């Protein structure tokens, strides 16, 4: 029972460094998950952010030969913003999803996994470990499910009985042989709240996500946001929490265990207008430490423009005119043109006509035409 003893010691150590939940899983290939991934690929539901081949993503031994166990960890994150600033007319604000509050969780979890690795190697020298968080080949969720951290909900999140789905997940493949845990039974039952609440129908059926329809993914793309999703975006700047917020398993779950995860309300819900003209340097200084900045400022600015259109925020018009005229990026000029059309007004019509004469980017021209069309339709 040496390994059971070692497992207890690893659990005790994990608690001492602030890991909220830990589970142990076998390294067998994820056969069912592999079939699901193949289906996802065939149906065109992948996001394009996936790492590795399906074979690598479902075969731990391909990543670390002689691997014996996978250790899955979960850290609970806050779900409520204390002192949230209000978004009011003339001073509108956007929102970053909860997974982008506080310091980038990839860094926090990597530090925890590194400490855990060091503890293990000190106890059993020669142990080899390979850790990953979110961007590795393995699916954090599939591992967590097998390790008994939680069940995979119809909203595609891992739901823990203790912290709901408001947990960050990471894992470590190790050559250490340790007793494994039992998965938790699916407790979604007849509930379908997340599927019903999804604004874009991205949860095709319980547990299957079409990434290309999911707002969380769409907020991270750099190109024009497809028309049909613009009015569904609301004031979201990065990510989408709707299918987690409506989940009854998350009711009352709001854990503040980690100082680094505490959000700055002004960054979690930033003013929209200043984002439109923020410099690269300022963006990096202000938002560089949050996970939602990983794609740079352009998607956030594009989303901020769409959010201002959602609010029909007239005070944004002078800045939008400026972007339409001078921004070097067609996506920003074009999205500004669309937003100007949504907000409307005589001056807007004039500005769009002027821009149309000068614009030479095909997509931006199309957006200007859409903006003008919206204004004409409103006049009828
Ligand atoms: Fe739907 Fe938003 Fe959930 Fe994506 S994150 S599945 S868009 S509710
Ligand atoms: Fe499951 Fe209901 Fe939560 Fe969706 S909302 S994940 S169906 S419990």
Characterise the protein shown here.
The structure is a single chain. The mean pLDDT is 95. Strand 5 (151-152) and strand 6 form a beta hairpin. This protein has helices at 2-16, 31-43, 54-58, 60-63, 105-123, 140-146, 193-197, 215-218, 227-230, 242-245, 265-268, 272-276, 280-287, 297-310, 317-326, 330-343, 346-358, 362-379, and strands at residues 21-26, 69-76, 95-96, 129-132, 151-152, 158-159, 167-174, 203-205, 208-209, 236-238. 43% of the residues are buried. The strands form four sheets. A four-stranded antiparallel β-sheet has the order 1-2-7-4, sandwiched between helices. A two-stranded parallel ribbon has the order 3-10. Strands 5-6 form a two-stranded antiparallel ribbon. The protein is α+β, with helices and mostly antiparallel strands and 380 residues long. Helices cover 44% and strands 11% of the residues. It has a domain at 1-85 and 97-263. It starts with a helix and ends with a helix. The protein has 18 helices and ten strands. The structure holds iron/sulfur cluster (2 copies).
């Amino acid at each position: 029972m040496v390994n059971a003893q070692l497992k207890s010691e690893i659990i005790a150590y994990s608690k001492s460094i602030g890991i909220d939940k830990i589970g142990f899983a076998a390294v067998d290939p994820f056969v069912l998950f592999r079939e699901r991934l193949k289906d996802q690929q065939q149906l065109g539901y992948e996001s394009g952010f996936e790492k590795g081949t399906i074979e690598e993503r479902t075969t731990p031994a391909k990543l670390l030969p002689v691997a014996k166990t996978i250790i899955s960890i979960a850290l609970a994150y806050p779900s409520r913003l204390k002192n949230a600033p209000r978004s009011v007319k003339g001073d509108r604000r956007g929102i970053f999803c909860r997974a982008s509050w506080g310091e980038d969780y990839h860094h926090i979890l990597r530090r925890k996994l590194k400490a855990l690795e060091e503890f293990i190697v000190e106890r059993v020298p020669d142990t080899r470990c390979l850790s990953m968080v979110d961007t590795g080949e393995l699916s954090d969720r599939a591992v967590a499910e097998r390790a008994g951290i939680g069940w995979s909900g119809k909203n595609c999140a891992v739901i823990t009985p203790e912290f709901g789905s408001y947990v960050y997940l990471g894992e470590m493949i190790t050559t250490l042989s340790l007793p494994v845990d039992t998965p938790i039974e699916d407790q979604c039952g007849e509930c379908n709240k997340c599927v019903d609440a999804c604004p874009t129908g991205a949860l095709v059926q319980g547990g299957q996500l079409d990434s290309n329809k999911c707002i969380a993914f769409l907020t991270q793309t750099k190109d024009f946001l497809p028309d049909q999703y613009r009015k569904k975006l609301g004031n979201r700047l990065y990510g989408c929490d709707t299918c987690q917020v409506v989940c009854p398993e998350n009711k009352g779950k709001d854990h503040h265990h980690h100082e680094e995860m505490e959000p700055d309300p002004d960054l979690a819900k930033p003013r929209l207008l200043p984002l439109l003209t923020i410099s690269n340097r300022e963006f990096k200084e202000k938002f560089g430490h949050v996970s939602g900045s990983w794609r740079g400022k352009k998607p956030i600015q594009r989303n901020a423009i769409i959010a201002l259109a959602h609010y029909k925020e007239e005070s944004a018009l002078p800045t939008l005119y400026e972007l339409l005229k001078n921004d070097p990026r067609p996506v920003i000029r074009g999205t500004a043109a669309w937003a100007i059309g949504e907000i409307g007004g005589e001056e807007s019509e004039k500005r769009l006509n002027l821009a149309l004469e000068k614009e030479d980017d095909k997509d931006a021209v199309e957006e200007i035409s859409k903006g003008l069309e919206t204004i004409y339709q409103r006049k009828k």
